[in-house]
């Protein structure tokens, strides 16, 4: 297919939604508050460590790449308030990084971003052991902005690779993997966006994604905004849509992909993959390379976040279950590699079993 050459893959000319930014004066993390969508678009400006950590924990900012971007800019912003002596600065920077790392365990992008910033500081100290704190802040700022820019570049490029694979027709997606979940454009939803921009006739089936409704609140909001045809469905309707032949492919994102291609993503993704296998429908995972964790042999080693029982018991502000009923609330599941047709990255589209070699 030659159509991919028409896609804009330049992050410097990207004009779409950027939900995670550094404020123009460079002193605050700016976030589009995803808890308020789709009711209203509220932008928050945060500069305190605890506020930034809580924003990640409460899904004010969410989606693996966006979490990484928020942590990167967040750590830089926090560094502005740290002591001016190098030893104290470094000790407090480590503590701040540890607090941010403690927010959400599954999205590996969080740890990649924090490691990139810490490594950049270490590299500066190796070259200049007496480096002033001002210089170290400069390094943090440049590394954080580079992380965000690289994420956008990856999304635009994987969008182009994925668009060449996506068939016309019904496309099922789960959770939100759009601009909101990244630095912009999106991963799985970025592929949908890129394919639509190229003229592929699509109709997106949006799983509402219980318990926190990232599909109905966020994905549907993005698709309606872009004018991409879509239908919102409850999670338990996906099987019926597949059985009726209304879905030609499924595409989802990932929070962490192990070396063997097993992929952790929003709870319910595994169910979609099993259904697709049963119906002979291709099931794609789209993610930037920062989501691939080659240090883990398989998905069994991916830490899965368990969230508050009240996210399941309470819906729309009202109790929908006995207040004391025991609840399980794993936020993610692992889709085994054998159910995945292809993993779409900025480096190209891989069969799950090819990841390890591609990563060398
Ligand atoms: C491009 S986002 C990929 C994943 O992070 C996404 O599918 C997902 O599962 C997000 O979960 P969330 O709990 O909303 O952060």
UniProtKB/TrEMBL annotation:
Catalytic activity as recorded in UniProt: 5-(methylsulfanyl)-alpha-D-ribose 1-phosphate = 5-(methylsulfanyl)-D-ribulose 1-phosphate
Coiled coil, from the record: none
Record has DNA damage as a keyword: no
One GO-annotated biological process of the protein: L-methionine salvage from methylthioadenosine
Record EC number: 5.3.1.23
Keywords recorded for this protein, A-Z: Amino-acid biosynthesis, Isomerase, Methionine biosynthesis
Keyword Nucleus appears in the UniProt entry: no
SUPFAM superfamilies: NagB/RpiA/CoA transferase-like
Binding positions (substrate): 62-64, 104, 214, 265-266
Top EC class of this enzyme: isomerase
Location of the active site: 255
Pathway(s): Amino-acid biosynthesis; L-methionine biosynthesis via salvage pathway; L-methionine from S-methyl-5-thio-alpha-D-ribose 1-phosphate: step 1/6
InterPro entries reported in the protein's UniProt record: IF-2B-related (IPR000649), IF-M1Pi (IPR005251), IF_2B-like_C (IPR042529), Initiation_fac_2B_a/b/d (IPR011559), M1Pi_N (IPR027363), NagB/RpiA_transferase-like (IPR037171)
Pfam families cross-referenced by the UniProt entry: IF-2B
Gene Ontology MF annotations: S-methyl-5-thioribose-1-phosphate isomerase activity
Residues under site feature: Transition state stabilizer: 175
Entry similarity comment: Belongs to the EIF-2B alpha/beta/delta subunits family. MtnA subfamily.
Function: Catalyzes the interconversion of methylthioribose-1-phosphate (MTR-1-P) into methylthioribulose-1-phosphate (MTRu-1-P).
PANTHER family, sorted: METHYLTHIORIBOSE-1-PHOSPHATE ISOMERASE
Name of this protein: Methylthioribose-1-phosphate isomerase
Protein species of origin: Enhygromyxa salina
Gene this protein is translated from: mtnA
């Amino acid at each position: 297919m030659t159509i991919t050459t028409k896609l804009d893959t330049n992050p410097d000319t990207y004009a779409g939604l950027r939900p995670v930014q550094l404020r123009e004066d460079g002193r605050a993390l700016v976030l589009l508050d995803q808890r308020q969508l789709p009711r209203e678009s509220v932008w928050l400006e945060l500069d305190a460590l605890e506020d930034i950590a809580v924003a990640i924990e409460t899904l004010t900012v969410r989606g693996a790449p966006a979490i990484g971007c928020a942590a990167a800019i967040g750590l830089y912003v926090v560094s502005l308030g740290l002591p001016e002596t190098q030893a104290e600065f470094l000790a407090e920077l480590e503590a701040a990084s540890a607090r941010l790392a403690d927010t959400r365990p599954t999205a590996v992008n969080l740890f990649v971003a924090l490691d990139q910033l810490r490594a950049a500081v270490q590299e500066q100290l190796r070259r200049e052991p007496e480096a002033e704190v001002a210089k170290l802040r400069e390094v943090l700022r440049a590394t954080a902005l580079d992380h965000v820019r690289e994420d956008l570049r990856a999304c635009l490029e994987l969008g182009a690779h994925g668009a060449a694979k996506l068939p016309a027709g019904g496309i099922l997606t789960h959770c939100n993997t759009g601009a909101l979940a990244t630095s912009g454009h999106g991963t799985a939803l970025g592929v949908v966006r890129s394919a639509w921009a190229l003229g592929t006739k699509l109709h997106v089936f949006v799983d509402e994604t219980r318990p926190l409704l990232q599909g109905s609140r966020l994905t549907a909001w993005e698709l309606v905004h872009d004018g991409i045809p879509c239908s919102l469905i409850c999670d338990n309707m996906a099987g019926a849509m597949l059985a009726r032949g209304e879905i030609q492919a499924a595409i989802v994102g990932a929070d962490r992909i192990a070396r063997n291609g097993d992929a952790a993503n929003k709870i319910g993704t595994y169910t979609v993959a099993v259904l697709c296998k049963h119906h002979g429908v291709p099931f794609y995972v789209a993610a930037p390379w920062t989501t691939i964790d080659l240090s883990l042999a398989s998905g069994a080693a991916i830490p899965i976040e368990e969230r508050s029982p009240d996210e399941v018991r309470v819906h729309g502000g009202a109790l929908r279950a006995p207040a004391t009923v025991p609840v399980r609330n794993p936020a993610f599941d692992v889709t085994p590699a054998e159910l995945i047709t292809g993993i779409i990255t900025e480096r190209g589209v891989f069969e799950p079993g090819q990841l390890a070699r591609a990563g060398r």
